[in-house]
């Protein structure tokens, strides 16, 4: 149908959805691959992890739940993995890559993948304290004397 100046309108062939993607290259093969997976719309995601003390690694499983919004279409999505995910997985990647400030993002056709990250005993972040200790933590923070001189290091 007609739109105003600068407008591009489509009736979507009567469908109630539209898939849009930035392709990593301009080949016919890439367009065909993305067309094949275009109707696998993501419904939810889930991350599960397990610390394997015997192997000295953290295993993380990333899962994507999808719905094929076209009859007969693939329900397998295309995922672009961050470099730190790609480095620690043996999932079968396509040859396609996106460029990013963080490095190359390889493309994977899958509903899930797993990373196995070596763990050397240093936590990347501390766990949050239990909520029942909130009042005590606030009391400790109020008791800190911000005007006190900086003490000597405890290891001196």
Explain this structure to me?
- By secondary structure, the chain is α+β, with helices and mostly antiparallel strands.
- It has one domain (12-124).
- It has three helices and six strands.
- Strands 1-2-6 form a three-stranded antiparallel sheet, with no helix packed on it.
- The protein is elongated, with a radius of gyration of 24 Å.
- The model has no long low-confidence stretch (mean pLDDT 89).
- InterPro entries: Endo-beta-glucanase (IPR005200).
- It comes from uncultured Bacillus sp.
- This is CAZy families CBM4|GH81 protein.
Summarize the structure.
The protein is built from 3 helices and 6 strands; from the N terminus they run αβββαβββα. The model has no long low-confidence stretch (mean pLDDT 89). The chain has 156 residues and is an alpha+beta fold.
Describe the structure using short key phrases.
156 residues, alpha+beta, 3-stranded antiparallel beta sheet, 3 helices, 6 strands
Radius of gyration: 24 Å
* Overall geometric form: elongated
Strand order of the largest sheet: 1-2-6
Assembly context of the chains:
single chain
Largest sheet: 3 strands, antiparallel
- Percent of residues in beta strands: 25-35%
* Average pLDDT taken over every residue: 89
Can you count the beta strands?
Answer: 6
Low-confidence stretches: none
Distance between the termini: 78 Å
How many domain units? Answer: 1
- Briefly note the structural class of the backbone: alpha+beta
> What is the helix content?
10-25%
Protein name: CAZy families CBM4|GH81 protein
Organism: uncultured Bacillus sp
InterPro entries: Endo-beta-glucanase
GO molecular function: endo-1,3(4)-beta-glucanase activity
